[in-house]
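worker-03 picked up job from queue 'complexes'. Input manifest follows; two sequence lines, order preserved.
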Amino acid sequence: AQTVTQSQPEMSVQEAETVTLSCTYDTSESDYYLFWYKQPPSRQMILVIRQEAYKQQNATENRFSVNFQKAAKSFSLKISDSQLGDAAMYFCAYRSLYNNNDMRFGAGTRLTVKP
Amino acid sequence: EPEVTQTPSHQVTQMGQEVILRCVPISNHLYFYWYRQILGQKVEFLVSFYNNEISEKSEIFDDQFSVERPDGSNFTLKIRSTKLEDSAMYFCASSEALGRGTDTQYFGPGTRLTVL
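worker-03 finished. Artifact:
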Protein backbone atom coordinates (compact mmCIF):
# COMPACT_ATOMS: atom_id res chain seq x y z
CA ALA A 1 0.00 0.00 0.00
CA GLN A 2 1.09 3.49 -0.70
CA THR A 3 2.16 5.62 2.25
CA VAL A 4 2.88 9.30 2.50
CA THR A 5 5.21 10.74 5.12
CA GLN A 6 5.54 14.33 6.20
CA SER A 7 8.38 14.47 8.69
CA GLN A 8 7.85 18.06 9.80
CA PRO A 9 4.84 18.40 12.10
CA GLU A 10 5.41 22.15 12.35
CA MET A 11 7.31 24.78 10.43
CA SER A 12 7.53 28.52 10.72
CA VAL A 13 8.65 31.20 8.32
CA GLN A 14 9.08 34.93 8.42
CA GLU A 15 6.76 36.90 6.22
CA ALA A 16 8.27 37.44 2.74
CA GLU A 17 10.77 34.62 3.26
CA THR A 18 10.84 31.21 1.58
CA VAL A 19 9.98 27.91 3.23
CA THR A 20 10.14 24.31 2.03
CA LEU A 21 7.83 21.60 3.29
CA SER A 22 8.99 18.01 2.91
CA CYS A 23 7.07 14.99 1.73
CA THR A 24 8.18 11.48 0.87
CA TYR A 25 6.08 8.60 -0.30
CA ASP A 26 6.37 4.93 -0.89
CA THR A 27 4.97 3.20 -3.96
CA SER A 28 5.75 0.48 -6.42
CA GLU A 29 3.77 2.16 -9.17
CA SER A 30 5.41 4.05 -12.00
CA ASP A 31 2.65 6.51 -12.74
CA TYR A 32 0.64 8.41 -10.18
CA TYR A 33 -0.30 11.87 -9.00
CA LEU A 34 0.96 13.93 -6.12
CA PHE A 35 -0.81 16.86 -4.53
CA TRP A 36 -0.36 19.50 -1.92
CA TYR A 37 -3.51 20.64 -0.16
CA LYS A 38 -3.80 23.57 2.20
CA GLN A 39 -6.17 23.48 5.16
CA PRO A 40 -6.57 26.89 6.84
CA PRO A 41 -8.34 27.29 10.20
CA SER A 42 -11.65 27.30 8.34
CA ARG A 43 -10.87 23.58 7.72
CA GLN A 44 -11.61 23.70 3.99
CA MET A 45 -9.17 21.64 1.95
CA ILE A 46 -7.81 23.74 -0.88
CA LEU A 47 -5.77 22.33 -3.72
CA VAL A 48 -2.44 24.14 -3.93
CA ILE A 49 -0.58 22.26 -6.61
CA ARG A 50 -0.47 18.91 -8.37
CA GLN A 51 2.23 16.93 -10.11
CA GLU A 52 1.88 14.04 -12.51
CA ALA A 53 4.63 11.51 -12.03
CA TYR A 54 5.28 11.04 -15.73
CA LYS A 55 6.15 14.73 -16.09
CA GLN A 56 9.75 15.58 -15.28
CA GLN A 57 9.11 19.29 -15.08
CA ASN A 58 8.31 20.54 -11.61
CA ALA A 59 4.85 22.05 -11.22
CA THR A 60 4.57 25.73 -10.38
CA GLU A 61 1.60 27.85 -9.31
CA ASN A 62 2.55 31.46 -8.66
CA ARG A 63 4.49 31.51 -5.36
CA PHE A 64 4.15 27.75 -4.93
CA SER A 65 6.48 25.28 -6.59
CA VAL A 66 7.48 21.70 -6.05
CA ASN A 67 10.71 19.79 -6.18
CA PHE A 68 9.69 16.38 -7.47
CA GLN A 69 12.40 13.76 -7.23
CA LYS A 70 10.86 10.58 -8.58
CA ALA A 71 13.79 8.28 -7.92
CA ALA A 72 14.01 9.48 -4.34
CA LYS A 73 10.20 9.48 -4.00
CA SER A 74 10.32 12.99 -2.68
CA PHE A 75 7.83 15.78 -3.32
CA SER A 76 8.61 18.97 -1.44
CA LEU A 77 6.64 22.20 -1.58
CA LYS A 78 8.39 25.56 -1.73
CA ILE A 79 6.49 28.68 -0.79
CA SER A 80 8.20 31.87 -1.87
CA ASP A 81 7.49 35.36 -0.52
CA SER A 82 5.43 33.87 2.31
CA GLN A 83 2.30 35.75 3.27
CA LEU A 84 0.27 35.74 6.48
CA GLY A 85 -2.54 34.04 4.58
CA ASP A 86 -0.28 31.08 3.87
CA ALA A 87 -0.54 30.01 7.50
CA ALA A 88 -2.33 26.68 7.47
CA MET A 89 -1.97 22.95 7.71
CA TYR A 90 -0.42 21.55 4.53
CA PHE A 91 -1.11 18.01 3.44
CA CYS A 92 0.82 16.05 0.87
CA ALA A 93 -1.26 13.44 -0.93
CA TYR A 94 -0.69 10.54 -3.30
CA ARG A 95 -3.19 9.22 -5.75
CA SER A 96 -2.78 6.01 -7.70
CA LEU A 97 -3.52 6.14 -11.38
CA TYR A 98 -4.29 2.47 -11.73
CA ASN A 99 -5.55 0.72 -8.67
CA ASN A 100 -8.12 2.91 -7.06
CA ASN A 101 -9.34 6.42 -6.90
CA ASP A 102 -8.77 7.24 -3.29
CA MET A 103 -6.01 9.47 -2.08
CA ARG A 104 -3.48 8.78 0.63
CA PHE A 105 -2.64 11.76 2.79
CA GLY A 106 0.36 12.54 4.92
CA ALA A 107 -0.04 13.60 8.53
CA GLY A 108 0.32 17.26 7.65
CA THR A 109 2.70 20.12 8.43
CA ARG A 110 1.42 23.12 10.32
CA LEU A 111 2.93 26.28 8.85
CA THR A 112 3.11 29.44 10.92
CA VAL A 113 3.93 32.72 9.23
CA LYS A 114 5.49 35.37 11.48
CA PRO A 115 4.91 39.03 10.66
CA GLU B 1 -15.56 29.30 -9.63
CA PRO B 2 -17.67 26.20 -8.95
CA GLU B 3 -17.33 24.75 -5.46
CA VAL B 4 -18.29 21.65 -3.58
CA THR B 5 -20.70 22.55 -0.80
CA GLN B 6 -21.59 20.62 2.33
CA THR B 7 -24.36 20.91 4.88
CA PRO B 8 -24.55 21.22 7.77
CA SER B 9 -21.24 22.77 8.76
CA HIS B 10 -21.58 21.28 12.23
CA GLN B 11 -23.78 18.41 13.36
CA VAL B 12 -24.19 17.35 16.96
CA THR B 13 -25.89 14.04 17.67
CA GLN B 14 -26.42 11.56 20.45
CA MET B 15 -24.67 8.22 20.37
CA GLY B 16 -26.84 5.65 18.62
CA GLN B 17 -28.62 8.16 16.42
CA GLU B 18 -28.50 8.24 12.65
CA VAL B 19 -27.04 11.21 10.80
CA ILE B 20 -27.05 12.20 7.17
CA LEU B 21 -24.32 14.45 5.86
CA ARG B 22 -25.07 16.23 2.63
CA CYS B 23 -22.86 17.32 -0.21
CA VAL B 24 -23.47 19.06 -3.49
CA PRO B 25 -20.60 18.21 -5.85
CA ILE B 26 -19.51 20.43 -8.69
CA SER B 27 -22.21 20.13 -11.31
CA ASN B 28 -20.33 18.51 -14.20
CA HIS B 29 -18.38 16.13 -11.99
CA LEU B 30 -19.05 12.41 -12.16
CA TYR B 31 -16.97 10.98 -9.32
CA PHE B 32 -17.72 11.61 -5.69
CA TYR B 33 -15.82 10.85 -2.52
CA TRP B 34 -16.11 10.97 1.23
CA TYR B 35 -13.14 11.39 3.53
CA ARG B 36 -12.87 11.59 7.29
CA GLN B 37 -10.45 13.46 9.50
CA ILE B 38 -10.47 12.69 13.19
CA LEU B 39 -9.14 15.68 15.12
CA GLY B 40 -5.37 15.77 14.99
CA GLN B 41 -5.12 12.84 12.61
CA LYS B 42 -4.71 12.22 8.89
CA VAL B 43 -7.40 12.66 6.34
CA GLU B 44 -8.66 9.15 5.56
CA PHE B 45 -10.48 7.89 2.51
CA LEU B 46 -13.89 6.38 3.12
CA VAL B 47 -15.57 5.74 -0.21
CA SER B 48 -15.79 6.71 -3.84
CA PHE B 49 -18.95 6.67 -5.92
CA TYR B 50 -19.57 6.64 -9.63
CA ASN B 51 -22.56 5.90 -11.81
CA ASN B 52 -24.82 5.43 -8.81
CA GLU B 53 -22.70 2.81 -7.16
CA ILE B 54 -19.73 2.50 -4.87
CA SER B 55 -16.51 2.07 -6.84
CA GLU B 56 -14.06 1.83 -3.95
CA LYS B 57 -14.31 1.76 -0.19
CA SER B 58 -11.85 1.57 2.66
CA GLU B 59 -11.89 -0.73 5.65
CA ILE B 60 -13.37 2.11 7.66
CA PHE B 61 -16.50 2.11 5.51
CA ASP B 62 -18.36 -0.74 7.16
CA ASP B 63 -22.07 -1.56 7.31
CA GLN B 64 -22.65 1.42 9.54
CA PHE B 65 -22.06 3.70 6.56
CA SER B 66 -23.94 4.15 3.34
CA VAL B 67 -23.87 6.63 0.48
CA GLU B 68 -26.52 7.72 -1.91
CA ARG B 69 -27.15 10.13 -4.71
CA PRO B 70 -30.85 10.68 -4.18
CA ASP B 71 -31.25 13.19 -6.98
CA GLY B 72 -29.19 14.89 -9.64
CA SER B 73 -27.33 17.18 -7.29
CA ASN B 74 -26.95 15.78 -3.78
CA PHE B 75 -24.52 13.14 -2.55
CA THR B 76 -25.14 11.92 0.98
CA LEU B 77 -23.28 9.97 3.62
CA LYS B 78 -25.47 8.21 6.16
CA ILE B 79 -24.06 6.97 9.42
CA ARG B 80 -26.36 4.61 11.26
CA SER B 81 -26.18 4.22 15.03
CA THR B 82 -23.37 6.71 15.54
CA LYS B 83 -20.55 5.96 17.96
CA LEU B 84 -18.35 8.33 19.92
CA GLU B 85 -15.43 7.50 17.64
CA ASP B 86 -17.38 8.71 14.63
CA SER B 87 -16.74 12.27 15.81
CA ALA B 88 -14.65 13.80 13.06
CA MET B 89 -14.60 16.22 10.18
CA TYR B 90 -16.18 14.67 7.11
CA PHE B 91 -15.10 15.97 3.73
CA CYS B 92 -16.87 15.45 0.47
CA ALA B 93 -14.93 15.73 -2.76
CA SER B 94 -15.69 15.43 -6.44
CA SER B 95 -13.76 15.06 -9.66
CA GLU B 96 -14.77 15.46 -13.24
CA ALA B 97 -13.49 12.07 -14.32
CA LEU B 98 -10.54 9.79 -13.80
CA GLY B 99 -8.50 10.66 -16.85
CA ARG B 100 -5.48 12.90 -16.90
CA GLY B 101 -6.33 16.51 -16.40
CA THR B 102 -9.83 15.76 -15.18
CA ASP B 103 -9.28 13.75 -12.06
CA THR B 104 -8.27 16.39 -9.56
CA GLN B 105 -10.45 16.08 -6.49
CA TYR B 106 -11.99 19.27 -5.20
CA PHE B 107 -12.97 19.26 -1.57
CA GLY B 108 -15.90 20.79 0.21
CA PRO B 109 -15.55 22.76 3.45
CA GLY B 110 -16.39 19.76 5.59
CA THR B 111 -19.02 18.86 8.17
CA ARG B 112 -17.89 18.62 11.75
CA LEU B 113 -19.73 15.73 13.38
CA THR B 114 -19.79 15.59 17.15
CA VAL B 115 -21.23 12.49 18.79
CA LEU B 116 -22.13 12.89 22.44
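worker-03 released lock.
Chain A touches chain B at residues 33, 35, 37, 42-47, 50, 52, 91, 93, 95, 100-108 (CB under 8 Å).
Residues 32 and 96 of chain A are 5 Å apart (CA to CA).
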